[in-house]
């Protein structure tokens, strides 16, 4: 039986970098040629599930299915269960999609998580790059925070061979992983060391985010989008830079404390997850 190695995000856990690393031809510049046979088995889709019974949605996924070889492959479906911060996640439909696409496959799923307070700051940064014009506090107050209950997400895909991994290096190191790329490649059954990974789809710096927010307020959408591309290149967030958008980050940490503890107990017992419930 062929295997499918299915990466389902979550968004803002370096999914764009993962897709770039595993997608030819860019991977040729990052990993050695001895790994190309594995890396070449990659198919990608960024299409989130809306309604599997919708005619046009089925056409999209039927087209994907026709391009899936009847052999081991890797598919990155970053938004398969939704992860739209202001619309509910769609677990039932996404499971139907996975079962449809990979009928006859041994399905293995990889799901990266990120502490919820930093997740919301990062996804807001991404949404501002794509036109979001609400101040952060309004954006957060109107968000469906239940979407980032990672235990609930994991439980909905536990029927498959599910692997959950933290995104944060300090948590990964408690189980002797170098970083999230080490966790990714070990899940793939490869021992690959990426010394200097490129930055793909970077968050904006504090100044960059402020400029983009103003652009979204006063410019037509296309012009604001064009500016976001320039700011990505010239004003990316520095590795240690913080935005401090949350007035009370501990509120989100407390909100998910019990759920995160159960998540680590159930799916990540080898990791010290205290970062997820302590500031």
Description of the molecule:
α7 (150-156) packs parallel to α13 (257-267) and α10 (206-218) runs antiparallel to α11. α3 (55-66) links the parallel β2 (42-45) and β3. The radius of gyration is 19 Å and the shape is globular. Residues 24-41 have low confidence and may be disordered. With 279 residues, the protein is α/β, with parallel strands linked by helices. The longest helix has 14 residues, at 116-129. The protein has a five-stranded parallel beta sheet with strand order 2-3-1-4-5. It has one domain (3-202, 237-271): Rossmann fold, CATH 3.40.50. The protein has helices spanning 15-21, 36-39, 55-66, 91-101, 116-129, 136-141, 150-156, 169-172, 180-187, 206-218, 221-234, 249-255, 257-267, and strands at 3-7, 42-45, 73-77, 106-113, 161-166.
Could you give a quick summary of the protein structure above?
This protein has 279 residues and is α/β, with parallel strands linked by helices. The chain contains 13 helices and 5 strands.
Shape annotation: globular
Structural class: alpha/beta
Strand line-up in the sheet with most strands: 2-3-1-4-5
> Total number of β-strand segments?
5
The level of helicity is 40-55%
Bin the strand percentage. 5-15%
Number of separate helices: 13
Output the helix-strand order.
EHHEHEHEHHHEHHHHHH
Main β-sheet description: 5 strands, parallel
What fold name goes in the CATH topology slot? Rossmann fold
Instruction: Say which CATH homologous superfamily is assigned.
Output: P-loop containing nucleotide triphosphate hydrolases
Which CATH C-level class is it? Answer: Alpha Beta
Q: Flag low-confidence runs.
A: 24-41
Summarize model confidence as the mean pLDDT. 86
Radius of gyration: 19 Å
């Amino acid at each position: 039986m062929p295997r499918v190695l299915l990466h389902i995000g979550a968004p803002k856990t370096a999914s764009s970098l993962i897709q770039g690393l595993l997608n030819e031809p860019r991977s040729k510049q990052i990993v050695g040629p001895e790994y190309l046979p594995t890396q070449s088995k990659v198919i990608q889709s960024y299409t989130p599930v809306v309604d599997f019974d919708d005619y046009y949605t089925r056409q999209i996924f039927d087209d994907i299915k026709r391009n899936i070889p009847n052999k081991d492959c890797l598919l990155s479906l970053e938004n398969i269960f939704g992860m739209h911060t202001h619309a509910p996640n769609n677990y039932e439909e996404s499971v139907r999609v996975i079962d449809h696409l990979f009928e006859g496959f041994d399905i293995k799923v990889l799901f990266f998580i990120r502490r919820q307070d930093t997740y919301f700051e990062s996804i807001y940064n991404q949404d501002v790059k794509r036109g979001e014009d609400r101040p952060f506090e309004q954006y957060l107050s109107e968000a469906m925070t239940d979407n980032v209950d990672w235990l609930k997400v994991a439980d909905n895909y536990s029927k498959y061979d599910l692997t959950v991994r933290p995104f944060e290096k300090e948590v990964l190191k408690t189980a002797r992983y170098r970083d999230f790329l080490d966790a990714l490649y070990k899940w793939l059954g490869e021992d690959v060391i990426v010394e200097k990974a490129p930055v793909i789809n970077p968050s904006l710096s504090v100044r960059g985010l402020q400029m983009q927010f103003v652009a979204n307020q006063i410019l037509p959408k296309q012009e604001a989008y064009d500016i976001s591309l320039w700011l990505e290149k010239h004003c990316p967030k520095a590795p240690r830079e913080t935005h401090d958008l949350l007035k009370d980050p501990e509120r989100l940490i407390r909100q998910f404390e019990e759920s995160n503890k159960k998540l680590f107990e159930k799916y990540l017992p080898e990791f010290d997850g205290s970062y997820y419930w302590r500031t």
